[in-house]
Amino acid sequence: MKYNITIGIAFLICLFVLLPTVHADNGKTYKVDSEKIELMNEPAKDAAVLGELEKGYKVTIFEDSYGWGKTFYNGEPAWVALYQLTEVNNDINNKEENQEAAQLDAEAQNKEAAAASETSTETNKSIENGKLYRINASAVNLRSAPDKNAAVITVLSNGSQITIFQESYGWGQTYYNDEEVWIALYLLDEVNDSTDNEVSEESETTDSQQIPEENEKEESEAESDQKDEETAAAAESQEEKQEVQAEQNSGAPLAGYHFVIDPGHGGKDPGAIGSEIYEKTLTLVSAKRLEQKLHDKGASVTFTRADDTYISLGQRAVISNSTDADAFISLHYNSSEDPDARGVETFYNEASSLANSVQTSLMNHVDLINRGAKQAGFQVLKENKHPAILIELGFISNPDEQKLVQTDSYQENAANGIVEGLEAYFN
């Protein structure tokens, strides 16, 4: 009898050791069953506790390992015991074509995010005549596919112009040597889109810095001269339009200023998880509202992410540092174990005056508790060469505040508060 028990125990140990880790490539959505569960930094009950989730909260699991599920919390991997969760419908799960970076989320996830943000922005669209962009970083890679790990075909320098014919999940498609190539859109500034209609298809190839094909090399000198004249005329026309635009915006309070807006979290990192909404979805809503307000004031804007894409904290700082921005603004929504916690706060590493200006203005526009401006060593602030702030626009762990911050009136007031705080600081 003892021998049989020993064999049985040995069999179970071997089974446990040999049991493979299951990767949930598409993610699975679960709901918390227990009154409260802990998020651990490793799949072990004695690991460090990163945070807690309360009953009814939803969490996306990307990997199963020996009874533990892997998710993300504040941008870092976190583990929860699966026996405390119940699987629910997978409608809001993230689909990743690249697991490491989660650069390309599936169409269903983007549709869900777009619907939640009540925007009409298309995440995957063809552009009939193309759109002209200018490189706004020192050097940008053209890749063989819309993936940051794809092969680099060539590199474009700052100020180069490029025509984008299709946009897909934060990437733009163009051509190089008559081959399809892709570039990250956050590294580009759109130029007046009418320019492309004035140049021929061969001129668009020039804008993309493509190497001429053999038949182009054989064009007559007259044809080449004519093309040069057309290109020069188009460039001159573009410069004139930009001058008119600059003149029209010269009286705007933030004309000539450039801001980097950083919608917190995204992709495989949902951020704080409210009972009704993910932080990553709400920050994108707020970012797009803020972008429109800044444009109305004459400012230009660069996003760290413009859709539901995962961008690491370090990369967000890199994006900011590659621009000539006057300030970096990271948008977040807070969460606490205390369901009564509420209010708005603005963090800074060095830019205390900017943080105080924005926090004061926000409090003049939204009816929430003032938690003040505070110093913090967040990575996106410490590694930023520009004045940088991180704003927590309310607690989605507080049921009442969660409902309030999702309203159109709150989003409008918060955006106005941030913009007027920037105006007060820079003027």
- Calculate the mean pLDDT score and round it: 76
Protein structure class: alpha+beta
The rounded Rg comes to 25 Å
Reported for the largest beta sheet, the result is:
6 strands, mixed
Can you give the helix content as a percent range? 25-40%
Strand order of the largest sheet: 16-15-17-20-18-19
State the assembly state of the protein chains.
single chain
Overall 3D form: globular
Low-confidence stretches: 11-25, 90-125, 193-220, 231-249
Q: What share of residues are in beta strands?
A: 25-35%
Number of strands: 20
The number of helical runs is: 12
The termini sit apart by 86 Å
Features:
about 425 residues, alpha+beta, five-stranded antiparallel sheet, 12 helices
Structure description:
- This protein is α+β, with helices and mostly antiparallel strands and 427 residues long.
- The chain has twelve helices and 20 strands.
- Strands 16-15-17-20-18-19 form a six-stranded mixed beta sheet, with helices on both faces. A five-stranded antiparallel beta sheet has the order 6-5-4-1-7, with no helix packed on it.
- Strand 5 (68-73) and strand 6 form a beta hairpin.
- Helix 7 packs across helix 12 (408-426) and helix 9 (352-363) packs across helix 12 (408-426).
